[in-house]
Amino acid sequence: MASTIVVHSHRGGTGKSTVLANLALLLAAEGRRVGVVDTDIQSPTLDLLFRLPPGDGSLTDYLLGRCEIEAAAQRAGVPGLYVVPGRTGIAGLREIMATGYDVGLLPEGFDRLVEHFALDVLLLDTHSGLGNETVAAMASADTLVIMARADRIDLCGMEETLSLAGRLACRRVLVMSMAPEGTDRERVRRLAEEVYRAPLAGLLPYAPEMAALYGERIFAEARPDHPLIDEFRTIISALDARDEVSRA
Ligand SMILES: Nc1ncnc2c1ncn2[C@@H]1O[C@H](COP(=O)(O)OP(=O)(O)OP(=O)(O)O)[C@@H](O)[C@H]1O
Ligand SMILES: [Mg+2]
């Protein structure tokens, strides 16, 4: 049965799309069939990160009734990896904001992708905060990966996300991102488990090598032997270890 993993953070710029793209590549490289949907139709990123050519549609086109969601999925990088971009061009955003759409199309579209591409994993990227697409994605999650920088402002926002996640029937794990050098991993783990009641799936350091890619390549593809890749693999193990991950 496919597992739907949603990556979210309350604040923007925590590294959601970066983490999701790396997990997607590593999972597909292991031979799993992976679907990715960029539900961040306001500020989509995955078309850029995966360097997708203009295709036959996007999530926005699907929501506007202009294409089937399967037609919007593009093969990306590794065999078995399919990516649905959030949007192509700016006109779609103006239009969807003016007309709205049936939110029920989102879970229906996710199910269709899983079935059509025989997916093992569906990864959903989200816009920060709690808009329609984000809440619909979270409601479809088997596992919610909540990301935050080790920063008081991010951590306060995380409580809001956790309070919503507590009402959803999904597992949740935390990933701390852009941790400064010298961050005490055990302290962060205790904080996650005791204060946020969710296991720490990963602690990603601030990596200047990652910033230096300028979003032009995905780290796992550009630097497959970098130690940071082990941290992404640790996150994958935590996502796989279903029994060890608490339910909300
Ligand atoms: N661990 C890291 N170390 C250094 N830079 C990072 C790290 N993770 C991500 N970045 C950089 O931070 C920027 C923001 O990352 P990203 O776009 O993945 O965040 P996001 O949470 O998806 O943002 P948004 O909320 O806008 O969707 C990018 O330029 C990315 O290359
Ligand atoms: Mg993003």
TrEMBL record:
Endpoints of the signal sequence: none
Domain AAA: start-end pairs: 4-162
Entries under InterPro entries matching the protein: AAA_dom, DNA_Partitioning_ATPase, P-loop_NTPase
Record Pfam families: AAA_31
Protein origin, superkingdom: Bacteria
Protein name (database record): AAA family ATPase
Species per Swiss-Prot/TrEMBL record: Streptomyces bambusae
